[in-house]
Structure formats: C-alpha cells, structure tokens
C-alpha cells in the first residue's frame, strides 16, 4: 500500500477498476488471465529483449495454472500480447492436437476470448514447443517459443551466475572447446536439438529445443521470434532480419537432420522435417511433423512453403522447393571458427 | 496407422479429468469433507500452505482434497490461485517473541526462561502401528486430566540470551534496493546472484519439504560443515497485523500458525571476535523438519563454502517444489521431435565409427543448412 489510504494501488480510475473485473473471458479472472500490471511487466521485458537480440532478460514469472516446465513462460508472453482481434495457434512438437497444446489453446480462448486457428498462415501469434512451422512466417506474425533451458552455456557450466559474466564479456571459449572436444571424441559435433547459435554476432543463444532443421529459419527471418521460460524467469528475442549463426567449424559444418531416401508416408513430402514411427507390425515409417502443413500438402502435393507470399519471396528451411528463390542464406563467417 | 501418439483434443483432456474425479473415492467409503481435511490432516494442509506461499487453511484443505492428498499438487493449486489475487498491502513486521507458544523445546539448554514446553508430540513415543485406529471411536485421552487448559504463553526467544552476550553473529538481511526497508520479494522480482539473504529465506520458506530436508541433511552427512545447535524449536500462532487503511492504526487481522527455529553453528569467522554463525527457519504450520532444514541451509549459504548446500544458486535453483515437480513431470510430454534429432546424431556417429573401423574413410558429411 503506497499511502495507507488507497485500497487498489494500481487502478487509476473507476473504469480501470471495473475493467479489471469485467467478465470478458473466464468469470472471476482478468482479461487474458494475468492482471494488467503483470502483462505490462512482461511486455517491458519483451521490449528490452528485442532491443538486445539474444540477451536473456529476467522477468518476475508468475505462477500459472499450468505446471512449470509445461509452457508457462510461453503462455505468459502470449497472453501479454493477445487481444480479441488476434488469431492464436498453439503447437506442441509440431502438432496442434497434442494434449498440452490443446490445454494452452483452451486457456487462451477461455480467458482472452481470442480466435484460435491451426493454420500457420492465418495466425497472428503462434506459441510453439520445439518446432518452427514449415510455412514461412511473415513480418506481421509473432512466434513465441517455449524454452526449458535458457542458457546454452549451461552445457559447460551449471552456474547461471558464472555464465552471465561470460555473456557480458562475450567469452564463449568454453563452448568452443566443448564443441572441439566433441569433434575429437566423436568425429563430429554431437549436439542434436538446442543447437547453440550466435545472435547478431554478440550473444550466444539457446534457440530452445527446436531441431537443427529449424535453426536456419531464425536467420534473417521476416517475423519476430520471442523465447520465454517461465520456470527460469527469462525472456529473449530474435527480432526480424537478425543474423543468427549456428556455431560450427570450417571443417565440421553445421548439419541439419538427414532423412535419406525418405518421404512423408501421408503426403509424400521430401522437404519437411519427418519423425519416425515404429508400427505394431515392426515397420518403421516416416511422417511430416508439422501436421497442419502436411494436411495442406495432402490436398496439394506441390504446395510451396511460401505459397501464401508473393511468389518472389524466399522460402525457408532446408531442402526447400526449387521453384522459390532462396533467401539470403549465404554462409557468413560470424559463427564459424577455423 | 498402428501408432497413436499422445494426441487428441479437448475431449480427451476432459475425459481424463473425469476419470481422475471418479477415482477420488476408490471404494465404498464416503467422500472426505473439506472440514475433515482441515481438522484431521493439518500436516498436509500446513505443507501445502508453506510450499504454496499462501496462508489460507481453508483453501489449503480444498487444495489437498482436490489433489487427492498430493502435497506438491496442492501447493501448486494454492500458488496458481495466489498469483491471481490483487495485492492489497503488506502486514507489519512482528517480533516472534509474541508467538503464542503451544510447543517449545530448547536443545541448547537444559532449562530456559519460560521452561521447556513439550506440547503435543509423538517424538518420544514408540512408532508402533496402532491397529486400534481401524476402529477409532474418537475418545479424547485427555478427558480425565484434572489440569485446567491454559492460554498459550508468549516466551522470550532463547537466542536473545546468547545475543545479549554478544555470542551470535547478526547477518545482514538485505533489502529491496529500490525500496529500503522492504524485504526482497522473489515473487515480484527475479532472483539474480549474489542474492540478498531476504530472498534466500523467502525461497527456503517456500521450498519443498523433502528437498529442504535432504539438502539440510547433506550438511550433516559430511558434505559440509554445518552441524548446528538449535537454540529452540517452537510452534504456535503468530499475530498478523496490518495498518488500518483509514485510521492508520495497527490492527491484528488474524493469527498464523508457524514453526520457528533458530540455530547456531560454531564456526568463527572473525578470529579477533569469535561469534557463532546463525541460521533461521520459519515455515507456515507445524513442520519442524522443514524449519530445522531451513535453518541449516540459511547458515550453510551464509558460509558460502564449497559444499553443495553452501552454494546459494544451487540450493535456490533446485529447492522449489513447483519448479522441480513441473520440470520433472514435463518429461511425460511428447518429445518425438527432439528424439528424432538425437536419433539422427547417434546414427551419424555410429556410421562414422563403423566406417573408420572397417578401414574406409569417414563418410563425407555434405548436409548443411542450405541443402
């Protein structure tokens, strides 16, 4: 209490007070679940994160009605951005229908009265766990990635306190040494997902556990990417058209996942991220991981990943369709060492 | 397809929840009432309140019932509810000598001002499974006592005796930088290190009972130096006072049941003026194990040594039950994307190893970002 008299310190007017209890979504809760003060705080952290690409900004993460580690940072960020005119898409491991995605989508639609969609090209905000959609995102779209572990340096040192100092000094030597030791021991870099990237030639960043397949999409993207960790109370960002370079060596290049001689069992795509499925009769089949794009490809097998953009725009991701000119993905030297 | 992923929509979520509700009574007995939980499982509700960081016995009883006795889940329900509540103000600091004490033991002294008050405890009885509880008629064994019930006394803190003699180090608590005099609040400000002691105490007080006990035990077990002497352990009710919003007077609004402990550790930091190190524990409800564990960890973290429990960052990062339970259980979520990525790496490395051992050159990796 600030002056001992005011009983609702944050309200500036009676209308503010009434708005606070208005029954827009879930009865008894504020619009978009979080109180306005919290949403403002999350947006402030988000703006700071955008101003310092790749830098982890602490924020006072609130307890959410989802378990920590299940997308609480992502949902706080999404709810702080959403308005009634937005279309919201939620995917978990590439699927809109995963139970946790359904649960998060239900929370947003119940409390924020927001339209939901499974079409990546229709959504204004996409919350995702561990995938970037196959269809190219536009400059009016925001991708919110759920983050379990915020600091790539935690692979080499468990202390965030020590790692914060390394980030301050751009001292990533311990990471380079770890990668080199990988090469010595295994012949190549054995990191699978959560592949460390250098953002804008400044901050080393954990891109969240997206597969390496999705990492190149972060580089010079048209859309804003926000990374949010509720349990670890950090937000970071890759603004549009920011340089993002996976760490690699000249003689050990960054590699995406390989699917030799495989196509999606459902739509036949050969240029999408596949996941393998062991069937009851002992077979192994591969299928598109992005279920919503797979459905579109089933209807139209030649559909480009950039079908919704004006033809001359570049597609993204590996092994893209040749009809669309490549984007500016020429290797820069930023993240490579001799 | 022969494989069904952990996928489906809201129908399945709904049905799973309904099944959970059906299991609430797995047999023929009556449902527990919230009153019964409140009256008879006070240890459970106390743990939920303490780990949830919300003192609300009635809500805690609902949470325990809703969670079917899972304290981590119950604490989580309380926290999630707490975070939606408007913050109306802060209570005034209270001297814990004002505690209305129902139990107080001082291991440091044979006798202390106010005396040893054993109170209600099973500490010194034999842990024999009581088969008579299967047919409990609810008789009150104190019925025949000829003593009159007294109001719980307010007792002088044992630690004051040592403080008066200048034997105890008085650690800085650390205030909020922006608002001097206000304790740090980790629910409103993310913790960075070195953390002020106020933040350490807050996080320990909200810590998971098992984690606090285990980490405290690690110090005693040899992974550290802190083997404290407890000045006292006490339980009772602490008055909660706020400043009246209109008159400005201090008014008592409720009493909160707490367990408090203060300990000293014979580690002399200042050679010229040796003093005991000091550790403090205060938790909601009756939970002596957690309070003592907390006091060990407070003292250990102040030492800032090399033992695991003396590293504030390590302890605070792992001690919170809501964090640990959430992240441990998130492993149940689908992970097939990341797993596919791991499969790719291990197959690639095995191909390379196989090629190397058969004398061929390692396969050339031509896959890159631009393929």
UniProtKB/TrEMBL annotation, chain A:
InterPro entries: PhnJ. It comes from the Archaea. GO terms for biological process: organic phosphonate catabolic process. Residues 299-338 are annotated as: Disordered. GO terms for molecular function: 4 iron, 4 sulfur cluster binding; lyase activity. Keywords: Lyase. This is Carbon-phosphorus lyase. It comes from Halorientalis pallida.
Automatic annotation (TrEMBL), chain B:
Residues 133-151 have a biased composition (Acidic residues). Keywords: Lyase. Signal peptide: none annotated. One of its GO terms (biological process) is organic phosphonate metabolic process. GO terms for molecular function: lyase activity. Residues 133-154, 168-190 are annotated as: Disordered. This is Carbon-phosphorus lyase.
């Amino acid at each position: 209490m600030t002056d001992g008299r005011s009983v609702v310190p944050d309200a500036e007017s009676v209308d503010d007070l009434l708005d606070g209890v208005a029954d827009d979504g879930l009865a008894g809760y504020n619009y978009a679940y979080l109180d306005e003060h919290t949403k403002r705080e999350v947006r402030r952290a988000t703006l700071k994160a955008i101003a310092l690409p790749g830098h982890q900004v602490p924020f006072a993460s609130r307890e959410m009605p989802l378990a920590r580690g299940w997308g609480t940072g992502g949902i706080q960020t999404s709810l702080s951005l959403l308005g009634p005119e937005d279309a919201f898409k939620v995917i978990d491991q590439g699927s809109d229908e995963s139970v946790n995605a359904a649960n998060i989508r239900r929370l947003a639609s119940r409390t924020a009265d927001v339209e939901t969609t499974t079409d990546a090209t229709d959504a204004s905000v996409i919350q995702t766990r561990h995938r970037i959609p196959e269809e190219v995102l536009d400059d009016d779209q925001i991708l919110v990635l759920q983050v379990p572990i915020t600091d790539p340096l935690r692979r080499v040192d468990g202390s965030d306190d020590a790692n914060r100092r390394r980030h301050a000094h751009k001292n990533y030597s311990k990471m380079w040494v770890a990668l080199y030791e990988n090469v010595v021991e295994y012949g190549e870099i054995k990191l699978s997902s959560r592949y460390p990237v250098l953002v804008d030639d400044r901050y080393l960043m954990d891109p969240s556990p997206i597969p390496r397949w999705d990492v190149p999409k972060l580089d010079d993207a048209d859309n804003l990417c926000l990374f949010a960790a509720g349990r670890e109370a950090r937000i970071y960002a890759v603004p549009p058209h920011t340089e993002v370079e996976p760490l690699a060596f000249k003689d050990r290049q960054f590699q995406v996942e390989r699917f030799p001689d495989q196509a999606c069992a459902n739509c036949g795509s050969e240029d999408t991220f596949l996941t393998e499925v062991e069937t009851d009769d002992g077979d192994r089949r591969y299928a598109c991981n992005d279920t919503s794009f797979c459905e579109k490809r089933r209807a139209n097998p030649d559909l480009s990943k950039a079908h919704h953009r004006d033809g001359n725009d570049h597609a993204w991701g590996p092994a893209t369709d040749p009809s669309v000119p490549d984007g500016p993905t020429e290797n820069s030297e930023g993240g490579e060492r001799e | 397809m022969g494989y069904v992923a952990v996928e489906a929509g809201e129908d399945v979520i709904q049905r799973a929840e309904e099944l959970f509700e059906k299991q609430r009574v797995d047999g023929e007995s009556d449902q527990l009432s919230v009153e019964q939980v409140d009256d008879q499982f006070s240890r459970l509700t106390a743990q939920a309140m303490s780990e949830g960081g919300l003192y609300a016995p009635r809500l805690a009883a609902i949470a325990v019932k809703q969670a079917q006795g899972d304290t981590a889940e119950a604490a989580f329900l309380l926290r999630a509810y707490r975070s939606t509540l408007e913050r109306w103000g802060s209570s005034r600091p209270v001297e814990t000598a004002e505690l209305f004490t129902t139990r107080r033991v001082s291991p440091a002294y044979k006798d202390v001002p106010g005396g040893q008050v054993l109170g209600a405890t099973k500490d010194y009885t034999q842990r024999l499974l009581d088969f008579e509880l299967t047919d409990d008629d609810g008789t009150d064994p104190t019925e025949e006592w000829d003593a009159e019930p007294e109001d719980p006394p307010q007792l002088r803190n044992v630690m004051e005796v040592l403080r008066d003699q200048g034997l105890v180090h008085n650690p800085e608590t650390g205030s909020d930088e922006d608002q001097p005099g206000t304790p740090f609040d980790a629910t409103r400000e993310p913790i960075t290190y070195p953390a002020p002691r106020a933040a350490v105490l807050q996080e320990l007080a909200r810590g998971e009972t098992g984690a606090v006990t285990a980490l405290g035990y690690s110090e005693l077990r040899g992974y550290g130096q802190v083997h404290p002497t407890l000045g006292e352990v006490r339980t009772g009710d602490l008055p909660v006072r706020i400043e009246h919003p209109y008159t400005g007077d201090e008014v008592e609004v409720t009493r909160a049941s707490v367990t408090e402990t203060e300990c000293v550790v014979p580690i002399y930091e200042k050679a010229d003026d040796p003093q005991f190190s000091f550790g403090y524990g205060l938790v909601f409800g009756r939970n002596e194990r957690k309070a003592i564990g907390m006091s060990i960890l407070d003292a250990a973290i102040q030492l800032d040594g090399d033992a695991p429990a003396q590293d504030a960052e390590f302890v605070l990062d792992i001690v919170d039950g809501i964090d640990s339970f959430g992240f441990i259980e998130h492993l149940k979520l689908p992970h097939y994307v990341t797993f596919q990525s791991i499969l790719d790496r291990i197959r690639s490395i095995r191909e390379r190893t196989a090629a190397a051992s058969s004398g061929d050159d390692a396969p050339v990796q031509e896959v890159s970002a631009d393929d």
